[in-house]
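Hey L., structure's done. Input below.
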Amino acid sequence: MPGYLRFENVTRRFGSFTAVDRVSLEIEKGEVFSLLGPSGCGKTTLLRMAAGFDVPDEGRIFLDGVDITRLPPDQRPVNTVFQSYALFPHLSIRENIAFGPKLSKRSPAEIRSEVERMLELVDLTAHADKKPAQLSGGQKQRVAIARALVNKPKVLLLDEPLAALDLKLRQRLLVELDAIHDEVGITFIYVTHDQGEAMSISDRIAVMNKGVVEQIGKPAEIYEAPRTSFVAAFIGDTNFLDGKITSRIGERFSKCAIHGIGEIIIDNDKPTSPGDLVHLSLRPEKIIVSRNRPELRENENSVPGVIEDIIYFGSHTRLWVRCGGWRICAETQHRTYQLDDTPLNWGDTIHLRWHANDGYLLEQYREEDESLLTLPDET
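Output:
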């Protein structure tokens, strides 16, 4: 069954620049779907085409089975929440929320009822008679959400809605926005460049890069099983290691020679054969740091290295460790009181340990492509 909101081979060009390149997406009814990527990747252009503010050069857009590709914005059951709030400064909060229903010629009684419901939903009943200038940034954004939802859209489009807010306020509003979605149950499309926001609120994410969708999946799938180096690097932090398959260990594992490190064991996430050149992603938090050479369990790896940099984050510490020419980032979680421990210092020799399952194979190369692999920095 086709998705509730569907993009079919949508392309949008601006002169010689292709902002969106043959994108096909199916977004399900009631889900929170995020378009995630860096500036200029095409996510906002895709959102604008869904809203009707822009028209694709090629392809079609369907909502609930209806072709809306060239339908004007005011004839679409879609509303947009912008980063800039776009509130009317001369109107009260109550009047701002009531503006859309009044244009739609709804009855005064219905408008009053719906406005009060929205004020309660976004917890702004006590501020209903204030002007936007009297509210905080987070409160203004909640007014913008209420003003969009009061029109009873089939889809709510959120274009970087929290980008102007500070970190703690963003985190709190994400929780509130998730609760609002649970209450109203309509489809949310959330555009952001912040992977933390997308991971925390989304049912599914589309990671975009240079006008194309690199991967679509649930947050855990995107993070744990990235399809490309771009996705692996953009979603969280990771280490990249390049090497050559030297032998197989049963069906599931292989030995891989890493220049400057030696042989490690990897999980065959993708089919491999001896001689294949492979590209591996290894997340910092998957690595266990120890002062002494660890006792290895089956299919575990251990690599010695020297600490080059340390950054303390409170809940955890990030270490950058020089391992045979590679600079590997590892993370230690602070699960116990740290002041009683002997701290790690710059120049200390430590051991990095991880299980073969904790690395993930990305692109593979042919034997003749050896020049494409990253060589470690031997300086």
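The two ends are 56 Å apart (CA to CA). The mean pLDDT is 91.

-- N.
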